[in-house]
Amino acid sequence: MTEEIEEKQPRNISEIISIIEALIFVADEPITIKSLAEVLEEDRETIEAAIEELRGEYEQRAGGLQLREIAGGWQLSTRTEYHEEIRAFLKTRPSAKLSLAALETLSVIAYKQPVTVPEILEIRGVQSASAIKTLLDKRLIVARGRKETVGRPMQYGTSKDFLIQFGLKDLSELPSIEDFEDLIQ
Amino acid sequence: MTEEIEEKQPRNISEIISIIEALIFVADEPITIKSLAEVLEEDRETIEAAIEELRGEYEQRAGGLQLREIAGGWQLSTRTEYHEEIRAFLKTRPSAKLSLAALETLSVIAYKQPVTVPEILEIRGVQSASAIKTLLDKRLIVARGRKETVGRPMQYGTSKDFLIQFGLKDLSELPSIEDFEDLIQ
Amino acid sequence: MEQHQTEQLTFDFFTETPHITAESRDEIKLELGKFAGPLDLLLYLIKQEKANIFDIPIAKITDEYLKYIRLMKKLDISLAGDFLVMAATLIEIKSKMLLPREIFEEAEEEMEDPRKELVDRLLEYEKFKSAAQMLYERSTVEQAVFRRGKIETDENNTETSATVFDLLTVFQKILSRHKEEIQMEIEREEVSLADMLKSLRKRIYETKELNLLAFFGEMHTRRELVTAFMAVLEIVRTESVKLLQNTTFGEIVLRKV
To answer: What is the mean pLDDT of residues A79-97?
Structure first.
């Protein structure tokens, strides 16, 4: 009812850190520097410095949680060390692994995106339709428009869920495909 | 294959605290001393002492989160001081989320546009009025004039926002039945 | 082929990676897993032979490859057509390698090694296979990391965020729901082969060319599809209509000649 125009006290850095921690906790997806900066009405640099400090804190405490950069944002998660106890408590099993065919198809899509079904066939030497269907169902890949060529085939690329499920900050974190060449011989 | 009966190292207190923190973090509801004791296979006293220590840590840090006893269990939550910022953030969250009814209605409109309410009813077999309202509110569909037939019902089609939200350049990029058939053989 | 007698073959199709274990000197146990494709099988055979990928003993590898295919067939395991395509490729390369050298020498330019294209494909494929391994390891590590449980502000939503493929899947489901209802009401009249042939002929003579997949897609029931298929075989056999495929994996069209 009363729209007060409050003179905001400038926040100190430890307050900013606390708010960031609360927001990262509340967000159900990795939260970006950009949206933190918008909500807090602070500049990127301040946010980045605050996050760096917070990340250091978590690292030093070495408690049950960690602060990680993932899929272009920041997220709190448990440390890998305690997965057995957590699984026992949640009564879950590790989720079904992808088949060899699906993993291969995913690696082609990850490195060649945007890529069409015939292009995937070319590299893998085998039809990949059911693997693509699985990857779409698991939301690891998404349609990325059509290729302007004969038949206008659908193109595919990896999704944000792909980054999250594979623990990647962004696609550039993937080792370059040429690096694998050295491993082969 | 080899079921190893491992002699478990007794955990030290800081390890127990870390595991408790991780478990409280992943739990959907406040977690009781009893269930913590069960998962960790430790006695109540140890768990209680560990929680007390953890609670003290959170209090001393005075960060964005707090550890609270609530409804007979323990839970992590944000500190009340930051509720304004949290509310501001929650409001900015994009909601591309749709109920199944809305999604079904949207799919009919996307593939059959321009299409009237009676036609949607015919295809879906259920009334879609509230779903259509939701879609209009979310600006995913727009009215496209009246159909020159009995009762001159309003026709609907997808909007520009629809294209943006689903990452399409234009409607020709919608996957077709043929694209899909390639995948489900 | 005396190794035929000493080979004891056991199959375990649930193991992801195939391997051979030599249990004793004259007993080789071959465990064939699910190969991800013909290139995968080929790489495996090359490694098995400890062969140099740049100098593949093509005759030997081809024999091994065909042996595997035959075994699969004997065990009644459905083989993807791609495995057969590769078999044909190998046989082709093998026969080129057998050509007398003089033919090459006569040619002005030096003949390219018939294996080159295959080697290039294998090398390219192997990179992605290694990348897949890396992804596998990453996801395993990531499965040990957990995100927070539900909190109040998550609002108990049963909603999901949708992609374009969700739109299509949902639409398909609605249509099939619809189709079932209709089919319960009306008994569809079956189309005879003669009728099918007549309409197919008309279509081809009108348009000169007909996409086979699209034509089959118009069929409503399995029976109609079978009839359509028979009509295509019949028209190709009896009339001046050809089945054409422009690229190796391209679409197949019927064309009047």
So the answer is: 89
